[in-house]
């Protein structure tokens, strides 16, 4: 079992930045492919970005390319999502997730563990 806890969300103005963190605990003796997802009210959950199990590949949704960056600190068992140039459409609850897959998956059902989410609100 792996427990994931997100933090770093909040209220930010258009064009601002936030860095989300996802701390993993529990079965962290093995590596997981990690992903970030988000869900806005009334919308389906969507893939934001992810990093493969050993960090060799990183993928982003087209809507965030060039603005968001996924990184991880294995020593701290922590995944990050640096979000720059934020827009109102980025407003959502952001979730991190862990998968035993070797490659990044964009479908939520491919992930085994999920955090509770952190709210990001971009105000105009």
Summarize the topology.
Layout: E1 2-7, E2 10-13, E3 18-26, E4 33-39, E5 46-51, E6 58-60, E7 68-73, E8 78-83, E9 92-99, E10 113-114, E11 118-123
Parallel strand pairs: 2-11
Antiparallel strand pairs: 1-3, 3-8, 4-5, 4-9, 5-6, 7-8, 9-10, 9-11
Can you walk through the features of this model?
This protein is mostly beta strands. It has no helices and eleven strands. The strands form two sheets. Strands 2, 4, 5, 6, 9, 10 and 11 form a seven-stranded mixed sheet that branches. The protein has a four-stranded antiparallel sheet with strand order 1-3-8-7, with no helix packed on it. The protein is globular.
Q: Name the helix and strand elements from N-terminus to C-terminus, one letter apiece.
A: EEEEEEEEEEE
Q: What is the overall number of helices?
A: 0
Overall outline:
globular
Average of pLDDT: 94
Low-confidence stretches: none
Strand element count: 11
Distance between the termini: 40 Å
Q: What's the gyration radius in Å?
A: 13 Å
* Helix content class: under 10%
Major sheet summary line = 7 strands, mixed
User: Structural class, from helix and strand content?
Assistant: mainly beta
Strand content: over 45%
